[in-house]
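Morning, I've got a small favour to ask if you have a moment. I owe you a coffee for this, so here goes:
>
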Amino acid sequence: MFSSLLLVLLIGAIAWAGASAGLAPLFGVALPYVAVVVFIAGMVWRMVYWAKSPVPFCIPTTGGQEQSLDFIKQNKIDCPSTTWGVVKRMFLEVFFFRSLFRNSLADVRENDPISNGPRSVYYSSKWLWCFALLFHYCFLLIFIRHFRFFIEPVPSCITFLESIDGIMQVGSPRFYWTGGLVLVALLFLLCRRIFNHRLRYLSLLNDYFPLWLLIGIVGTGLCLRYFDKTEIAEVKIFVMGLTHFAPVAATGINALFFVHLTLVSVLLIYFPFSKLVHMPGVFFSPTRNQANNSRRVRHINPWNPPKQYFTYPEYEDTYREAMAEAGLPLDKQPEKAAE
């Protein structure tokens, strides 16, 4: 945990020192361009690799009654047997995290009054689903809001979204609720890994690093807006220059902006090669995109090309003498032994 935190702090410190030392073009121009190229190439490589990977078995994850006799009610969402059922299941999975909503926790209750001893208990756990949904949707809204830096004039839909996000105006500049809520959701996900001893035992560097990286991005973004304020007009001119491949000088922009931009660039580079790539990966997952119809439709294993089989009679014809000397039973005795 601490190694990943130190790594994020080191990245931020290098960006801060570099921007303060006059290396703003490196962290504000070269690195974002490299990050975008790596992100696009990495995502294309990932999706092509997944699309070309054979699926040897029909392995949809099931969570209900499969299609059976007519008088037995089928769970058409958690155990779909048609393409339309798979579409409905994928829609609920992508937009509402249905499988996570159905998550349950297992625990051992000591001195249980029913069993007069330890007993395993299972109960519903909706906290993870709630904060995961909160994080993803808030992050999506923040991502859409940032398009105002890339487009001129700003579309009315983005302006409307900003007004809804800051409808309960607090302070000046206006407080966007998604910024505060996404930070709360990230802190919950981090504390869950730290204070849950079972999850902490299983967590590695690549589990903590994206959380600290996202917290750093959100934290620096909040600081730029509410505390160490930067000139928004200058930032937009700078970002528009990057968008049109005509970089401009970073005048009037403080070093914290380049820390924020560097962390975003690192996230883009890290994204295709990490667990975060589950965003498009869910569409390629055979446990989600297959229909549970293996009893009606034969699933052909693409890993089984035509083979030349060696039958037992052919095997015995080839090794009959050796098998006879070893005393193994034979369907047909060697000719010499038969004479």
